[in-house]
């Protein structure tokens, strides 16, 4: 009887579900931001996961319009740090009430939603075509999640010869 229980636990541990890339159900990992930006109308209704830094947020009658500088996502759907890797901007339309003060300029976000077309708005002296994403899920990343871990070297003899994780690092000897 116990062998059956162990076998059942092993089989249950190996089970998996089929989800789209980046951990979002139904997201199409093969659709890139460059493709969406080039022809947003051809991807209408398709699910995507995009991320970046908030440039502005504004309350409108139909919801909150969030302008985002696109940044590539890592394996955990976190936008990267390098602003030079951006391929453009997009607009995320959040249909429910969202106070723009909760997502100020520079906030890092990941947006899951569907492509709904594009909107042309002024950007400095030109008209810029922004792909529009209808938000189904908005992940706002906190400051603790944004901070990269710091590795500081251990100097001198001690119990650890290698990476030393401490905000109180001082060289040896301690005087």
Annotation keywords:
36% strand; two-stranded antiparallel sheet; mainly beta; 3 helices; single chain; globular; 13% helix
Based on CA atoms alone, the radius of gyration comes out at 22 Å
What spatial form do the alpha-carbon principal axes imply?
globular
Q: How many domain regions?
A: 1
In terms of quaternary structure, the protein is: single chain
Average pLDDT value?
Answer: 78
> Uncertain regions: pLDDT < 50 for 5+ in a row?
15-28
Q: End-to-end distance, in Å?
A: 65 Å
In the CATH hierarchy, the third-tier topology is known as OB fold (Dihydrolipoamide Acetyltransferase, E2P)
Name of the CATH homologous superfamily: Nucleic acid-binding proteins
| Proportion of residues in β-strands | 35-45%
Q: How many helix segments?
A: 3
CATH architecture: Beta Barrel
If strands are numbered along the chain, what order do they take across the biggest sheet?
1-2-3-5-4
Protein described:
The protein has a five-stranded mixed barrel with strand order 1-2-3-5-4. A two-stranded antiparallel sheet has the order 6-7. Strand 4 and strand 5 form a beta hairpin. It has one domain: Nucleic acid-binding proteins (OB fold (Dihydrolipoamide Acetyltransferase, E2P)). With 175 residues, it is mostly beta strands. The N and C termini lie far apart (65 Å). Residues 15-28 have low confidence and may be disordered. It is built from three helices and seven strands, in the order H-H-E-E-E-E-E-H-E-E.
